């Protein structure tokens, strides 16, 4: 059984929030900013929570005890070195915000546990008991699988599920070849399909209408 001490969480908070028109991470849902709600859920499942964001100062006041920022780096016309915590280092070019896959890679480079729980910051209906039940089953995931994710008619749900730390080299290779799509990347590898007892928990709060529907 994968316990809390054997799991790291990554929360992504760096998108444009263009459909919402303001920063989704800061939206209050039942009085608590969305990012903080997601971090609370992440803390219930993992000992360390990395918040990957280009602007940590914006969220400093929301930081919970087991959370740390990973500041996302963008350097124009230079290469950013992502140092894997153990093995080799790999060069990753960035010039501006590159989307969630690149943010995830920067967080994953910090992880030392076998499994990591990845969460978007815009999931207002997360259910801790479902995340914990999923985590408890990770020991049974066959060795070749790089991730354990829910699947729906549009494809994988990449921003609420589990990844093996050792997928980092493949991920960096895909990114360095120009790949930016979770779906394209995942389709190259074996992924365990997680049961989905609570599909509503994957609801993303993307628009003002979404926000109104959950208040
Ligand atoms: N760290 C990081 N997170 C990102 C980045 N792009 C998106 N995310 C996060 O990924 C999750 C899903 O983001 P989306 O809703 O697809 O994109 P968005 O840019 O936030 O919103 P839209 O502009 O409305 O598409 C959210 O938690 C975002 O904060 C990025 O470049 N870096």
Automatic annotation (TrEMBL):
It catalyses: Mo-molybdopterin + GTP + H(+) = Mo-molybdopterin guanine dinucleotide + diphosphate. InterPro entries: MobA-like_NTP_Trfase, Molybde_CF_guanTrfase, Nucleotide-diphossugar_trans. Residues 9-185 form the MobA-like NTP transferase domain. GO terms for molecular function: GTP binding; metal ion binding; molybdenum cofactor guanylyltransferase activity. Keywords: Cytoplasm, GTP-binding, Magnesium, Metal-binding, Molybdenum cofactor biosynthesis, Nucleotide-binding, Nucleotidyltransferase, Transferase. Signal peptide: none annotated. It comes from the Bacteria. GTP binds at residues 12-14, 24, 122. Mg(2+) binds at residue 122. One of its GO terms (biological process) is Mo-molybdopterin cofactor biosynthetic process. Belongs to the MobA family. This is Probable molybdenum cofactor guanylyltransferase. The gene is mobA.
């Amino acid at each position: 059984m994968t316990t809390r001490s054997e799991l790291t969480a990554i929360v992504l908070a760096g998108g444009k929030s263009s459909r919402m028109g303001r920063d989704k991470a800061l939206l209050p849902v039942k009085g608590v900013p969305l990012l903080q709600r997601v971090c609370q859920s992440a803390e219930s499942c993992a000992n360390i929570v990395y918040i990957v964001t280009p602007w940590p100062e914006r969220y400093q006041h929301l930081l919970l005890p087991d959370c740390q920022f990973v500041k996302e780096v963008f350097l124009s016309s230079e290469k950013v070195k992502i140092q894997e915590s153990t093995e080799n280092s790999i060069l990753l070019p960035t010039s501006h915000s590159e989307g969630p896959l690149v943010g995830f890679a920067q967080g994953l480079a910090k992880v030392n546990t076998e499994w990591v729980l990845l969460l978007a910051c815009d999931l207002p209906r997360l259910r801790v008991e479902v995340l914990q039940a999923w985590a408890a089953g990770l020991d049974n995931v066959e060795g070749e699988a790089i991730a354990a994710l829910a699947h729906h008619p549009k494809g994988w749900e990449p921003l609420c599920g589990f990844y093996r730390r050792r997928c980092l080299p493949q991920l960096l290779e895909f990114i360095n070849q120009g790949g930016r799509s979770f779906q394209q990347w995942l389709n190259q590898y074996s992924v365990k399909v997680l049961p989905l007892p609570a599909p509503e928990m994957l609801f993303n709060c993307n628009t003002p209408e979404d926000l109104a529907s959950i208040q």
